[in-house]
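[Q] Does anyone have a clean C-alpha cell version of this?
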Amino acid sequence: MALINKIREKSGIAVTVIAVSLILFMVGGDLLGPNSMFGGGNNQVVGEIGGKKIDIKDFQSRVDGFRQNYEAQTGRSLNENELSSLRDQAWNQFVVDIAYKKQFEDLGLTVTDEELYDMVQGNHVSPSILQAFSDPTSGRFDKNAVVNYLKNLKTLPIEQQKSWENFEKSLREERTRSKYENMLKLSTYIPKAQAEKEYVAQNTKANLRYLYVPYFSVVDTTIKVTDSQLEEYLSAHRKEYKGTDTRSIEYVTFPIQPAKDDSAALYSEIKELARGLATAQNDSAFASMNSDIPLPINQSLGTMTDQLKEAVKTFVPGGVYGPYREGNTYYIYKYGGTKTDSVSTAKASHILIRFENQSDSAKAAARTKAEGILAQIRAGANFEALAATSSADQGSAQRGGDVGYFQNNGAMVKPFEEAVFSATAPGLIPRLVESQFGYHIIKVTEPKSNTLYRIAAIGKTIAPSQATRDEAYRKADEFVNSVKTKEQFDAAVKKDKNLVLANANRIPESATNINAIQNGREIVRWAFKDDSKINSVSQVFETEEQYIVAVLTGKSDAKDVKVDDFRDELTTKVRNQIKAEQITAKLKGATGDLDAIAKKYGAGALVESASDISLATGFLTSAGFDPIALGKAFGLKAGQKTGVFTGENGVFIMELVSKSEAPKIADYTQYKTQLTQSLEGRMSYLVNEAIREDAKIEDHRAKFF
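[A] Here you go.
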C-alpha cells in the first residue's frame, strides 16, 4: 500500500513531465533550435529591404504561388534548379514591391485601367499578350482569342482566374517600371563639350614610339612582400575592396564510379537490346523507349560524334552495329540509309585578322597583314600554327582555327558562309574573305554535304550499383572518422595516393555549385554555419557522382575586410609597386634615344612603335590598352619624350613621333548620339543598382534554402 500511495503522490508530476515533453517534441525546434527565440536567433526573417523585414512565411507563400502557376502551365512538378529560379523571382518581386514602388509613388507613376485595357486588347498590346495569344502555326496575333478568353474567364477554374489576375498585375508593374526607366532615359543629357571631346578622342591620330618594361620582366620570387605592406595598401585603397561574406574550403572526393561488374551487366543488357532493335517493326520507337539519352533519328555529319562519323562509312542499310563505348555510355545503331536534307553542313577553319575600326587606313593595314599570312600558307606554312599565333578569334585559335561543323542557315556571317559553301573540295580558299569582323583566311576541312543519315540509336549509360555506392561511402566514412583536425586531414590525404586535394576559395553564401561539384548546396550551408570553425572537418556529403569530405580553411566578412580576403590580389598590386620602383630607379637619369636607353637598361626593356592610333581605340603591341601611357603620349608635342612613369602593366617612356589633329567640324550630333545611346543602354542596370543600394538590401535566403 505504501508503494501505491507513493505512486499516487508522484503521478501529478509524471503527467506534467510527459505533457511538457510532448510540447517540446512538437515545438522544440522553434523554441530551442540554433535560430530559435530561446536559442538566440530569429529564423523567421529571410531578409530586409528598405528597412522592412521579410518574414519566411510571406516569402514562402509567394514562392508557392509562383510554383502553382508554373506547374499549372507546364503540367509537371519543378526540379530543384527551377525551384531555385522561382525563389529568385519571388525575392525580386519583393524588391519591386518595396524598393521600386517607393520610387514610383514618390513620382506619382501609375498605370490606369484604360492603359491596362490598351495593353491587353487595345492598340498597343503588350509583347507578353502577343506571345501568349499568337497562332502556333502562323505566328499571327489573334485579338479575338484574348476577347473570348476574358469573356469565359469566370467559368474557368479558380486557379486559372488567379493566374490571370497575377498576370495582369505583372503587366501593370512592367509598364510602371518601363515608364520610370524611360523617364530617366529622357533625362540624360550630353553637353556639346563632352561630344566634342569624344570626337577628338576618336579622330585625333598619333604615331608613337615607346620604351616599355613590363612588370613580368622582373621575376616574382625576387620581390618580398610583407603583411605590413599589404595592410598599408589595403588601408589606402579600402574603397576598391568591398567585403563579402564568403567561405573557403579544401576537400577530397570519393567518386561513385561504375565497377567492372556494373559494366559487364550493362554490356549484356545492351546486346539483348541489339537483338530487339534488329527485329523491331518500329525501330525508332523501340530506340526511343529504351535509350537513356534522347537521340535524333536523322543525323548529319555535323551532329555525329567523331566515332560515329568514322563508323557510319561502313554501315549497310538494315544492319545493327555496336556496341560502341564513349565515356560511360554504350551505343548501338540500326542504319536505315540516307536522304537529302534541305540544308547543307560543312566544316572549316579560319584565321581572323580584325581591323580596329572602319577607316580606310585601318582596313588597309589589316588587309596587308592578312595577305601576308595567306601568302605564307600558300607557300607551305602550317595553317594551324599560324591560326594559334595570329588569329583574333581566340576561341578557334586555340583549336588551330577550327570552327567545327555548321549549316548554311545563317549560323555564320554571310560572306564566310558563302565562301565555305561555294567550295566543292577540301582545302585553302585562295582569297581573303571580308566580313564586319575583319578579314578571314579560310580552310575548308570538310566540304558541304546535304546528306542525312537515318540512324535508330540506343544509348545506355553505365550506372553504379548499390554495392558500388556502398563501397565508396565506406571509404569516405572511414576517412572522416579517422580525421578530426586539419592536420590529421592533411596527413591522411598525403598518405592515401588515391585522394586528390582540391580547394574552392571565396564561395558566396548563395552558391549551389562548388567548382565542378553540382548540387553542392549542403556543403555551402555547412561552411556558413556558426558552429563551423576554421580548420573544422565536415561530415560526409553525398552527390549523385561522389561523396565529399571538406575542411573549412577561410572566412571573409562583408563588414570586416581583412588582408587575407584579398591576399593574392593585394600581393600582386604591392609586388608591382615594388617592381615599378626598382625599374624606375634603374631608368632614372638615362639619356639618349629610346634604343640607347633600352640597351643601357638591359634585358626586359622593349622599344616598340604604334601607328595611326587614337585615344579612344589605342592599343599598344605588348602593353595592350594602357590609358595612362596613351594620355601622356597624346599630351606631348611632336619629337618630345616623357620622363619615366608607371602605367597599368609596366614602366614607360613615351615619345610622340607625329600627331594628326582631328579637323574642326560644326556638328557633333553623331557623337552626342553615340554617348547618349551608350548611357541609355546601361540605364536599366544603373537604375537597378542605385535602387538596390539605396534600399540597403540584406538577403538571408541562404540560411533557409
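[Q] Thanks! Anything notable?
[A] The longest strand covers residues 329-353.
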